[in-house]
């Protein structure tokens, strides 16, 4: 599935740009989904992904995106201390339905654009599993 949505995070390098899976071809892409950008656990998980991404600062073949649900909730708490792009689903893209997303799902998309792994971060944030999946996809 392809989509382009505006990056709403003013702390991100691609702020205001319309980006999506096809913006970074032949790379590994992770998509974190939250339907409540004001809820502590959702914000915490996105912050953990932002911190994890910084460990890959020299890796040019990895990108992580946050994708909010198609709602009118403010994203200010979600992006406050994070630099990863934050996108909001809309009626046209309809990513949550097309990708069968649940709140706090993390999707791992390989260099060919295929979803390889899907885990849910509600119960825990297992950095070792996430790193294992990233490493396997980068090889």
Description:
The chain is of the alpha/beta class. The strands form 2 sheets. The chain has a 5-stranded mixed beta sheet with strand order 5-4-3-6-7, with helices on one face. A two-stranded antiparallel sheet has the order 1-2. Strand 4, helix 2 and strand 5 form a beta-alpha-beta unit. It is globular, with a radius of gyration of 14 Å. The two termini are 23 Å apart. The mean pLDDT is 96.
* Lateral arrangement of strands in the main beta sheet: 5-4-3-6-7
Percent helix, as a range, is 25-40%
Estimate the mean pLDDT confidence.
96
Q: Radius of gyration from the CA trace?
A: 14 Å
Q: What's the total count of β strands?
A: 7
Terminal-residue CA separation:
23 Å
Task: Describe the structure concisely for a colleague.
Helix content is 25%, strand content 23%. It is α/β, with parallel strands linked by helices and 139 residues long.
Task: Break the fold down into its secondary structure elements and pairings.
Elements (H helix, E strand, L loop, with lengths): L4 E2 L11 E2 L8 E7 L5 H15 L7 E7 L7 H4 L6 E3 L6 H4 L6 E5 L5 E6 L6 H12 L1
Parallel strand pairs: 3-4, 4-5
Antiparallel strand pairs: 1-2, 3-6, 6-7
Which keywords apply here?
alpha/beta, globular, two-stranded antiparallel sheet, 139 residues, five-stranded mixed beta sheet, single chain
């Amino acid at each position: 599935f392809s989509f382009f949505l505006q990056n709403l995070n003013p702390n991100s390098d691609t702020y205001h740009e319309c980006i999506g899976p096809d913006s970074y071809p032949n790379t590994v892409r992770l998509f974190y989904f939250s339907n409540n950008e004001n809820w502590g656990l959702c914000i915490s998980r996105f912050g953990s992904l932002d911190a994890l991404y910084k460990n890959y600062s020299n890796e040019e073949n990895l990108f992580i995106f946050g994708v909010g649900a198609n709602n009118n909730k403010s994203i200010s708490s979600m992006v406050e201390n994070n630099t990863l792009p934050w996108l909001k689903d809309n009626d046209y893209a309809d990513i949550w339905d097309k990708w069968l997303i649940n709140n706090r799902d993390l999707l791992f998309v390989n260099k060919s654009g295929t979803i390889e792994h899907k885990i849910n971060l509600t119960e825990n944030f297992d950095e070792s599993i996430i790193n294992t999946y990233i490493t396997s996809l980068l090889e």
